[in-house]
Amino acid sequence: MDSNKNTQANSSSFDDIDKKIQANQVLYDQLHQSLIEETISQVEDENNKKGSNKAEISFLDNFISKLSNYYSSNELFRYALWGFAAVFFATTILTIIEYPLFSGSVKDDVGDGFMFGGSEPNWVDTFFHTFWWAVVTFTTVGYGDVSPETHLGKFLTIIIMILNLGIVTMLTGAVSSVLVAARLKGDDKLDETKFHNHIIIAGWNSAVQSALRLIEANEDSASVVILINETEEEIIKRAISGFDRLDITHLSENFTQEGVLKKAFIEECGTFMIVPDESGLLPNEKPDEDKTVLTALTAKSILEDIQVVAYILDEEYISHLHRANVNEIVFPDEHIPHMLAKHVTDPGVPQLFDELITQEKQDKGIQVVSIPKGLVGLTHNKVSAYYKFKHKWLLVGYAIRKAGFSLEEQMGESGSPIIRDMIKEQLDSAGIKLSSDEHVIVEINPDDEYVVDGKHKALVLR
Amino acid sequence: MSVSAKQIQKINYFSKVPEELCSEIAKAVEEKSCSPGTILLKEGETGDTMLLVFQGQVEVSKNMMVKTSSGFTMSTKSIIRLETTDPAPSNDPITQPTVSVVKAPGFGIGEFSLVLDDAKRTSHVTAMTDVKYGVLSLEDFSKIVDKHPSIGGSVYFEVAKSAVNNLATATQDISNLTQAFFFALTK
C-alpha cells in the first residue's frame, strides 16, 4: 500500500523512472549474464568431474564388492566356500605326496578316454583324479573306483577321513541351521539390503495415503517405505495398490515396541514418521496420542540421530514431543487461526497458501532443491540470479540444517582447555550429547549480502 | 652458588627490570632445590613468598569434586604443567603429563604473595623433575621496591597483566560452566 501512495505522489516522475530502469537494464543484464555464465560453467565443470569419476569404477571392482557383500551376508555360502577350500587343500597335498599312486591309477581308470596329457597322464589329470577321489570320499559316497594302495597313502587317507568327519558334520549343521533359521524367521523377515535411508511410517490414518501420493510424485525423494500399523491387511493393500515408484512394505505389528521398530531397520532409516493411529478405531473414536509420544521416545532411545517427524492432533502433546527430542512436529490446528484471520486482514494470502500447499504436480509450487556446489559461498543475490535466469524459478529463501544448540560451539576457544575438556568428559559420561539435534530452520528472503554456505538448500517457487 | 641477575631476568615478571636492579633482587633470593614429587605449594595455605623456578618441570593441580564410576569423589585434578626451557629440566618427569605443558625460560609461581600480605595459595604445585628454584619473600621484595620504586612499577605491571588474563579466562570458564549446567539440566 505504501508503494501505491508513493507512485501516486510521484506520478509525474514515472517517465524518469522508466528511463532510469532502461538505462540500468543493460548494465543489470550484463552483470547478471556474466554472473550466470560464471556460475553455470562452475556447475557444469563439477558435473563433468562427477561423470568421469563414475566411469572409472570398473566392472571388476563392482563384482568383487558384490561377492564380498554376499560372502558376509550369506552363512551358507560362507560354509560352502570353506568346505570347498578344505577339499581343495586336501587334494593338493595328496596329489603332491602320493603323485605316483594317483598318476598310475588314472590310466587304469580312464583307459582310452581323453587325457590332458595325451597318452600319459600329466599333472592336470592326476590332480583332477585325486580331486574326484577326494570329493567321493568327503561326501561319504565312496565309489571305490580309486583308492590308495600304499601304506603311506592309506595312512594319509585315514587322517583325511577323520578330519572329514568334522567338516561334513559342520557343513551339514550349517545347511540345516540356515534352513531352520530361515523358517523360524518366517516371511516377515525383511530383506535388509534395500533398507537404507528409507521412510518408516508408524500408524495409519487417512492422511498417510495422501502423503504417500505426494512422496511418490517427487522423484528425488526416497522410494522405500515401511508402514507399521495394525490396520487390516486388506485396507492397506487397497490403499497402497496404486503406487509405481514407491516400494511399500507393511508390517502388521505394534509400533510402540522396540523390537518391531528394529525389524523395520530404524537405525538405517532416513525419516521416521509417527501419525495418529486410527487402526481398528470406530469413526467417532479418537486416536490414542500417548502412543505417538511413546514411540518417539522409543525411537530416540534406539538411536539419537534418527530423524523423527511426529504428526499430532492435540496441542497438549507438543511439549511431550519436544522433551522426546522429536526433530519436527506437524500440528495442523496451529495454522487454522492464521488462515481464518488472513481472510479478513489480507484476503488473497490464504488462497495463496492453499494454492502452494495443495499443488500436487512435481514441477510446480514451493520446492527444496540442493544448491550446486559452484554456488556455495556466494551471496544471496548471486544465487537468486542463478535460479531466476537459469531455471526461471523464484528463490524464496533457504532451508538450513542446523544443530539447535552446540555446547562445543558455544564454549568457543577462550577459557581454560582443562575446564572445557572436563565439561565434555563429564557430560559424555552422563550420556548427554554436546549438541541438541539437527533440525531444519528457514531463512526467508534474506539480505542481498547474505552468504549461502554448504548447509543451505534453496526454497524455490516454480 | 648464589642466584645470578640473568636467572632473575628470565622470569616473566622481572623481564622488564634492568639487569643492574635484577642483581639487587638476586641478592634477596634464597636458592633451593628439591627432588621430584616434592610439594612446593599447597592449596589453601597462606604464604608470603613467591617461588622463582629456574630449572625443572612442575605440575599445577587443584582439589575438585569429580564424578567417577564409583560416584563423586574428591580428587586432585592436574590443570597444567610448566616447564623451563633455559636450562631444560635435568631429568624426565616422574609421570607422563595428562595435561598441556607450557614452556617458558623460567617462571614465577605464587606471585599473588607479592601483592597480598597473606595470600592463600590457589592450587597445588608439585615438582615433577628435579627442580631448582628461588624463594623471594614479600618483605625482602618490599624493601627493594622502597629503594628502587621503578622495579615495583614494572613488576607489578606484569603481575597485573597476568592477573587480568587469568580473570578473563576465569570469566569465560564460568560462562562455559553455566552453559553446560543449563544444558545438562534440560536433558
Describe the structure.
By secondary structure, chain A is an alpha/beta fold. Chain A folds into 3 domains: 70-183, Helix Hairpins, CATH 1.10.287; 187-330, NAD(P)-binding Rossmann-like Domain (Rossmann fold), CATH 3.40.50.720; 365-462, no CATH class. Chain A is 53% helix and 11% strand. Chain A has 17 helices and 10 strands. Chain A has helices at residues 2-9, 14-56, 59-73, 75-97, 99-110, 123-138, 151-185, 206-217, 233-239, 258-263, 290-302, 318-323, 336-345, 349-357, 380-391, 407-411, 417-429; strands at 199-202, 224-228, 247-251, 271-274, 308-311, 328-330, 366-370, 394-403, 438-444, 456-461. In chain A, strands 3-2-1-4-5-6 form a 6-stranded parallel sheet. In chain A, helix 2 (14-56) crosses helix 15 (380-391), helix 4 packs across helix 6 and helix 4 packs antiparallel against helix 7. The radius of gyration of chain A is 35 Å and the shape is elongated. Residues 1-10 of chain A have low confidence and may be disordered. Chain B has a single domain (5-186), classed as Jelly Rolls. Chain B is built from 4 helices and 11 strands; from the N terminus they run ααβββββββββββαα. By secondary structure, chain B is of the alpha+beta class. In chain B, strands 2-10-5-6-7 form a 5-stranded mixed sheet, with no helix packed on it. A 4-stranded antiparallel sheet of chain B has the order 1-11-4-8. A two-stranded antiparallel sheet of chain B has the order 3-9. Chain B starts with a helix and ends with a helix. Chain B has helices spanning 5-10, 19-28, 138-147, 149-186, and strands spanning 30-34, 39-41, 46-47, 49-55, 57-68, 71-84, 101-104, 107-109, 119-120, 124-127, 131-137. The chains are: A alpha/beta (462), B alpha+beta (187).
